[in-house]
Design a protein that fits this description.
flat, mainly alpha, transmembrane helix
Amino acid sequence: MKIRKALRWATVGAATAATLAVPGIAAAETPSSWTENGPMPWVEVIGIYVGIPVGLFLLISVLVIAPSLVRGSGYRPGGSWYSEPLSFGPESKPVTAEAETAAAAKRRGGAGASW
């Protein structure tokens, strides 16, 4: 039990020391061997922050749309529909008056209900 408690305190202490050491690293001065650059021109900033995202958007759009443009339209004027009909949900059959009466009696649970 004491070993677990000591390990827990050691872990907390190491995490605290690492957290306190990081701001010291971030506050370090720029090395003197690096050259001082002036501010970036606004055209370059616009090119980086607007041009690159717009260019990527256009590239992805073209890559998505290109296959359907190459393949062409699936619609053939004057042709008939060439697919099987699709049905969504349960199959519905025409309900007759007798079937409706039997279903209503079954729901009621009356004497006419067929078990």
